[in-house]
Structures are given as C-alpha cells and as structure tokens.
Amino acid sequence: MLRHITNIYRALLFLGLLVGGGFFYSGQVAASSTSSVNGQFLARDHLIIDLQSGVEWMRCSVGQQWDGSSCTGDIIRLSHADIAKAIVLANEQLGGAWRLPSRAELEGLVCEKCADVKIHPKSFPQTAAEPYWTGEVNGFAARHFWSVNFMTGYTYGRFFPQQELAVRLVRDR
User: Fold this and answer.
1) Coil, strand, or helix at residue 115?
2) Residue 32 has pLDDT above 60, yes or no
C-alpha cells in the first residue's frame, strides 16, 4: 500500500514539474522547432509526430523530462489506475486528449535493427529496455493488458492492470 501511494505521489510530482515548471516539459518554449528524424518521425521539441500512425508521442517516458536534447530523470512505472490520474494531469497541462497507445501504435515504434533498445534512440532517447503499457485489453485473457517490450521488440498480453510498467503517452493529431 505504501509503495502504491509513493508511486502516485511521484507521478503527481512529476506531472507538476514538466511544462514550464509543470510536469511534462522543462525546456524553454520560445520557438517551436521541427526536424525530420527519419521517414516515419518528425521531432517537434518534446513531441514526436508519427507520420505512419497519425499520432503525436511524448518524446520521453512518464517520469522523464525533455531538456532540449534528451530525456532526463527517472522513468516512473505506473499501474493502470495511476495512469488514469497521470493522463488527467497531462491533459490539463498540455492540452489535447493524451492517452495510452493501442497495441498497434506502440508496436509501430519498435525498431528491429536497433541494437540495445528496440526503439529509435534519436526520436525517443533514454527509453528503458523493458515493457511499456498499451491501453488495450488482451482479448484472449480479458484480465490482462497488452504491453510492448523494448528490450526484445516483442508484444506480450500477460500483465495485470495493477502491475506497474513504464508508460509513453500519445494523442491523436
């Protein structure tokens, strides 16, 4: 119970640090810069535009901050109940309708040729080589949710929603 409360506190604290003193972005937002990372992604400050899926990704995992060149800080692992609270804060601070990605959206980030972490390191720096939540229930085992593991690049449908995994938020364009 104490660990659960501590993780909620850490997530709320993180959400309170990122955007101009808020949780989701710590850099200066004087001018928006956009650059092509590869044929699939466009980088715009703390966001990545996914041209293939038509969504915008948070460049950093929940718990990290974009400093203008990389993601810094510690990734916070959350349960689905805690993610719901983090999404409310993200929507308040950043606008838009942030959410967990679908299985297909998150699988679309997997980079088969990437060596250490199976995700494009220039687009998504400091991503952990571990499972990340999707918002999709496993239809074969309804008590479980799908995750994508960026250590292996494989998808798994075996995690219970009360388990704590890494999170990357997305919103529709």
Assistant:
1) coil
2) no
Angle at 79 between CA 73 and CA 83, to 5 degrees: 70
Q: What are phi and psi of 32, to 5 degrees?
A: -85, 130
Q: At CA 38, angle to CA 128 and CA 119, rounded to 5? A: 15
| Residue positions counted in the chain | 173
Single-letter amino acid code for the residue at 141: A
- What residues does 155 pair with on adjacent strands? 148
**Contact 133/165 with Cβ under 8 angstroms?**
yes
CB-CB contact of 148 with 141 (8 Å): no
Task: For the chain, give every domain's residue range.
Answer: 2-172
CA–CA separation, 149 and 95 (whole Å): 28
pLDDT tens digits, 55-87:
999 999 999 999 999 999 999 999 999 999 999
- C-alpha angle with apex 143: 130 to 82, nearest 5 degrees? 60
Helices and strands, counts by H and E, the chain: 3, 10
